[in-house]
Design goal:
The chain is 22% helix and 25% strand. Helix 3 (117-135) links the parallel strand 7 and strand 8 (140-145). The protein has one domain (2-250): Endonuclease/exonuclease/phosphatase (Deoxyribonuclease I, Chain A, 4-Layer Sandwich). It has helices at residues 11-17, 20-26, 117-135, 158-161, 169-179, 186-190, 207-210, and strands spanning 2-7, 31-35, 52-56, 66-70, 76-79, 92-96, 101-106, 140-145, 183-185, 200-201, 213-214, 217-222, 229-234, 246-250. With 261 residues, it is of the alpha+beta class. It comes from Sporolactobacillus mangiferae. Its cofactor is Mn(2+); Mg(2+). Keywords: Hydrolase, Magnesium, Metal-binding. This is Exodeoxyribonuclease III. Pfam families: Exo_endo_phos.
Length: 261
């Protein structure tokens, strides 16, 4: 089972740069979860024969948004957390399958001046409670741009970025608290000491070419899926956004009867 997550930084812009559907087919992607669509579904013609589409658009046009394209029809779909103050920006989609939940998530950014840090932490607490409740029912896989570099190994310049958005003590503790509830960062579980592994680079100063970046995109799974993980990859060669896609390969299946389209 091959899952891919990607903050596309504007889906219409990405479609002008590459044939996303052909790329999905070529790489035999079972589910693609995208963040920061920056559009409403009706603003683009995107045909995906063989894949179901699920979109969660922000109320505000041109902002945030998530989508999932999957070969397998879920038994249930939920948009948001059921909390009105957190469900206006299209940041969460939950697909329930027979064997697990698959979530696409786009965590709010605290902003450069940290004016949104308090809200970011409120959202994080609500999300933690939400996935804990799901995990009591069946295993959870959630993926996306979580807007935090968890530890110093996850960004090029940790010392100079301490206290900056995405690397505040509060944001890092928020992620640690989530993992402590029985979840694992799949990439670090498999590659605990790998350095230079980043998923986002600034457009400035040739940061991507110089690999001056941050790892802020994750596949997180319930602890009990640890032994089903085959590999976790950072697809840094794939261009089209300031983020690159990430991949999780699991020895598992979406359904017992493979109810594909």
């Amino acid at each position: 089972m091959k899952l891919i997550s990607w903050n596309v930084n504007g889906f219409r812009a990405l479609l002008r740069k590459m044939d996303v559907y052909a790329w999905m087919q070529k790489n035999n992607v079972d589910a693609l979860c995208i963040q920061e669509t920056k559009m409403h579904q009706g603003q683009v013609q995107f045909d995906t024969p063989g894949y179901y589409q699920y979109w969660n658009d922000a109320v505000r046009k041109g902002y945030s948004g998530t989508a999932i394209f999957t070969k397998y029809k879920p038994v249930n779909v939920t948009y948001g957390m059921g909390i009105d103050m957190h469900d206006q920006e299209g940041r969460l989609i939950t697909l329930e399958y027979e064997r697990f939940f698959l979530l696409a998530v786009y965590t709010p950014n605290a902003k450069r001046d940290l004016t949104r840090l308090d809200y970011r932490l409120e959202w994080g607490t609500a999300f933690k409670n939400y996935v804990r409740q799901l995990d009591e029912i069946k295993p959870v896989i959630f993926c996306g741009d979580l807007n935090v570099a968890h530890t110093e190994i996850d960004l090029t310049y940790p010392k100079s970025n301490k206290g900056n958005s995405g690397f505040t003590i509060e944001e890092r503790q928020d992620f640690s608290s989530l993992l402590d509830c029985g979840f694992i960062d799949s990439f670090r579980a498999l590659y605990p000491n790998q350095t230079g592994a980043y998923t986002w680079w600034s457009f400035q100063f040739n940061a991507r070419q110089r690999n001056i970046g941050w790892r802020i995109d994750y596949f997180v799974t319930s602890e009990r899926l640890r032994n089903r993980m085959i590999d976790a990859k950072i697809l840094c060669e794939v261009a089209g956004s300031d983020h690159c896609p990430i991949e999780l390969d699991l020895n598992d299946s979406f359904t017992t009867d493979k109810n594909a389209m």
